[in-house]
């Protein structure tokens, strides 16, 4: 499915604001740009019309006239501690910033206020940015769906409840990524493949669990048990301890993130379990958590830096009125290392 900026009829226009306020479009424009050549009555009526329609001023055209760079915002609706601890965010931002630097657009980063998230929403809705990137492991609030009706927005994950929404998403195919990792374990001879999932309150967590299940079902294998993790090494370690306490045995484990896999590997080694001789490990994310362990971890590279670049590319095209796919998948690549070596 494709949409264009011009086809989104629900987006209020300057003309609609002027008609509702009972003024000319030039008067409405002068109010929005802060011109002193308007009456207080016109300011009041235009302001009321903007609020009623949810109109966001198009700063792109004015930026060109003033020869100012257009700004796009990357919004992170995550707790600050999680943002700084997870390399995923740094990699996506790095890719986004690199791509933005090759354009006429500048990138600004906003971490949602934990105590007052509405404050951050207001920053985006004031018209100071040409568009927004929403990047979060978790669901975006309803406010971002509303924002996308009046401002170009690209999401880094399709939020729960947004399956049928007319929004733009750039993300990895999590089902396919999990299936690629789990399938690799099956191909190397594993017959009891367990998994440590990402948080199941995230779409990625649920989709990666589905990919693991689908792969084992297609291979005619019974699952080797699963436990939920939390995207941290400590969470992966705790989940692995719970797996080992279960009656189920397993000869391989798919771990839904490299951070968790590094913690899970440490627990196996502390129990005298050899990797890959006794238990093979495959994971997702090709970062230092997958390369710094002994043995290094086989992983599916989710190309997170490329994801950041693709998000900015899609947003710039939306801002400029081009046709953009509503859903774009980032490529994935299997990287084989010693944790699954035969």
UniProtKB/TrEMBL annotation:
Annotated keywords: DNA-binding, Transcription, Transcription regulation
Pfam families: LacI, Peripla_BP_3
UniProt GO MF annotations: DNA-binding transcription factor activity; transcription cis-regulatory region binding
PANTHER family listed in its UniProt record: HTH-TYPE TRANSCRIPTIONAL REGULATOR GALS (PTHR30146:SF109), LACI-RELATED TRANSCRIPTIONAL REPRESSOR (PTHR30146)
CDD domains reported for this sequence: HTH_LacI, PBP1_LacI_sugar_binding-like
Residue ranges of domain HTH lacI-type in the record: 12-66
Protein name from the UniProt record: LacI family transcriptional regulator
Species this chain originates from: Microbacterium caowuchunii
Alphabetical list of SUPFAM superfamilies matching this protein: lambda repressor-like DNA-binding domains (SSF47413), Periplasmic binding protein-like I (SSF53822)
InterPro entries to which the protein is assigned, alphabetical: HTH_LacI, LacI/GalR-like_sensor, Lambda_DNA-bd_dom_sf, Peripla_BP_I
Superkingdom assignment: Bacteria
């Amino acid at each position: 499915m494709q949409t264009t900026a011009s086809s989104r009829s629900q987006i209020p226009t300057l003309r609609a604001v002027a008609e509702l306020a009972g003024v000319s479009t030039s008067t409405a424009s002068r109010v929005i740009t802060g011109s002193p050549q308007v009456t207080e009555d016109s300011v009041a009526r235009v302001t009321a019309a903007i609020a009623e329609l949810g109109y966001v001023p198009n700063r792109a055209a004015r930026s060109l006239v003033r020869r100012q760079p257009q700004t796009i915002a990357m919004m992170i609706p995550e707790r600050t501690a999680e943002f700084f601890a997870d390399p995923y965010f740094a990699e996506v931002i790095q890719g986004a910033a690199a791509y933005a630097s090759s354009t006429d657009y500048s990138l600004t980063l906003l971490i949602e206020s934990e105590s007052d998230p509405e404050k951050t929403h207001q920053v985006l809705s004031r018209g100071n940015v040409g568009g927004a990137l929403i990047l979060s492991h978790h669901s975006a609030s309803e406010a971002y769906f509303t924002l996308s009706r009046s401002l170009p927005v690209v999401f880094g994950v399709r939020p729960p409840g947004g399956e049928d929404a007319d929004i733009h998403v750039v993300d990895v195919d999590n089902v396919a990524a999990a299936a690629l990792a789990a399938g690799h374990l099956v191909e190397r001879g594993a017959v009891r493949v367990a998994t440590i999932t990402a948080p199941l309150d995230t779409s990625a967590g649920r989709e990666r669990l589905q990919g693991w299940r689908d792969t084992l079902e297609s291979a005619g294998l019974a699952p080797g048990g699963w436990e939920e993790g939390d995207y941290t090494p400590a969470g992966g370690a705790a989940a692995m301890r719970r797996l080992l306490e279960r009656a189920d045995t397993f000869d391989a484990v798919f771990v839904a993130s490299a951070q968790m896999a590094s913690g899970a590997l440490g627990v196996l080694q502390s129990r005298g379990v050899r990797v890959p001789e006794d238990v093979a490990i495959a994971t997702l994310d090709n970062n230092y958590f997958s390369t710094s362990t002994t043995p290094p971890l086989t992983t599916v590279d989710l190309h997170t830096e490329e994801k950041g670049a693709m998000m900015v590319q899609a947003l710039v095209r939306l801002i400029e009125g081009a046709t953009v796919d509503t859903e774009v998948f980032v490529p994935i690549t299997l990287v084989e290392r010693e944790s699954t070596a035969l």
